[in-house]
Amino acid sequence: MNTFPSIFNDVIGPIMRGPSSSHCAAATRIGLLARALMGGDIESVRVEFDKNGSLAMTHDSQGSDMGLCGGLLGFDISDERLVRYRQEIQKAGIRIEFRIDSYGDLHPNTYRLSLQNAKEQHRMVALSTGGGMLEIVEIDGHGLSIMGDRYETLVFFEKNDAATAARVSEILDREYAIEVLSHPGKEKDFIRISSPHPVDGKLAAAFENESVVVKILPPVLPILTPEETNLPFVTCGQMLSYNEKHKLDLARLAINYESARGAVSPEDIIDRMIAIVRTIKKSVQAGLAGTRYRDRILGCQSSLYHQKRQSGQLIDVGVLNRVILYV
Questions:
Q1: Whether 65 contacts 57, CB under 8 Å
Q2: Strand 44-50 and strand 95-101: pairing?
Q3: Are the CB atoms for 20 and 74 separated by under 8 Å?
Q4: DSSP H/E element including 166
Q5: Which residues of 113-137 are buried (b: 16+ CB within 10 A; e: fewer)?
Q6: In what side-by-side order are the strands of the sheet with 177-181?
Q7: How far is residue 214 from each of residues 114, 199, 310, measured CA to CA in Å?
Q8: Residue 152: which residues within 8 A CB-CB, separation 6 or more?
Q9: Sheet holding 95-101, edge to edge
Q10: What's the distance, CA 29 to chain centroid?
């Protein structure tokens, strides 16, 4: 499946608790997917970072611990409780162990998670690929690619049980793309069903009294990837050619593109952007008022700008005010 950039996924940074989208936002989303893999029931987690990667020395100071723990707790990337992640993870009774060793990871932002509760355990390997984006590259030793932009249904069953795979295909009436993942060294195989919509609940009901386990990993990105996309343009040259006929401004071109990319209405695109601008305005106002956090590398900087502007040392060109008038 070909995937194209999404404005809300890839271009406009996520509304999140800082300092780093690649550390904080991606880690939170990885934690959310790990939580879903465990059905929301997590007792202990071992987190492993390669000593030669970027996370070995920065996972605490740059907010990876905060984001990951928040996701394991079910917090969104903008949840104000993230700053209290140590107290919250302790209150939830989840034991977290961090290990740094040599794992030979090729990607510098690799998360190795071992998750456990009284009934089951799973392993997940995930990458933070920049700007809050992520990729799950392994679950229980099975290689795969989950980007967080679709509903992922995993049906775990006994190894080499072809009958189960056939039943799943029959229940879903072949409406979904089904991938059977098998690993020679693992006791369990699983079927992966990737879809822009939740799989019908009859799948879980069909295996309710059997040893088959169904896990649903909901999307964590703002814009999902549909089965097919019919984009008005992909390259800048195509956009210019498209606009020779339509005569649209850049904002409307962006709306048309993102609407087609995510199969959502133009009205939804506009509402999402308005919400982002309002959040930016609120954040700027809070920064100008002055904030203090113990986990910040630098102290408050925005209040110094505010003081200089009030004293006439800076010229207020009113750019932000003009933007906010439209919201």
A1: no
A2: parallel
A3: no
A4: helix 162-171
A5: bebbeeeeebbbbbbbeebbbbbbe
A6: 177-181, 188-195, 151-158, 213-217
A7: 19, 11, 60
A8: 146, 192, 193, 194, 216, 217
A9: 95-101, 44-50, 110-116, 121-130, 133-139, 142-146
A10: 4
The predicted pLDDT at position 307 comes to: 67
Per residue in 152-170, pLDDT tens? 988 888 776 777 777 777 7
Mean pLDDT of the chain: 84
User: What is the end-to-end Cα distance of the chain in Å, rounded?
Assistant: 37
- Distance (Å, rounded) from C-alpha 165 to C-alpha 65? 38
- The CA-based diameter of the chain, rounded to the nearest angstrom, is 77
Give 10-residue mean pLDDT values along the chain (327 residues). Answer: 83 79 89 96 95 86 88 91 90 94 91 95 94 93 92 83 76 70 69 85 70 88 90 95 95 96 95 90 80 59 63 56 38
Other CB atoms within 10 Å distance of the CB of residue 286: 11
Query: What residues are paired with 134 via a beta bridge?
Result: 128
- Dist CA 26 CA 36 (whole Å): 15
Under a CB-based contact definition with an 8 Å cutoff, are residues 4 and 261 in contact?
yes
Residue 194: helix, strand or coil by DSSP?
Answer: strand
**Whole-number Cα distances in Å, 266 to 134, 260, 272:** 26, 9, 10
Three-class SS of residue 105? coil
Helix 250-262 and helix 236-246, axial crossing angle in degrees, nearest 10:
110
The residue with tokens 């606009």 is 243
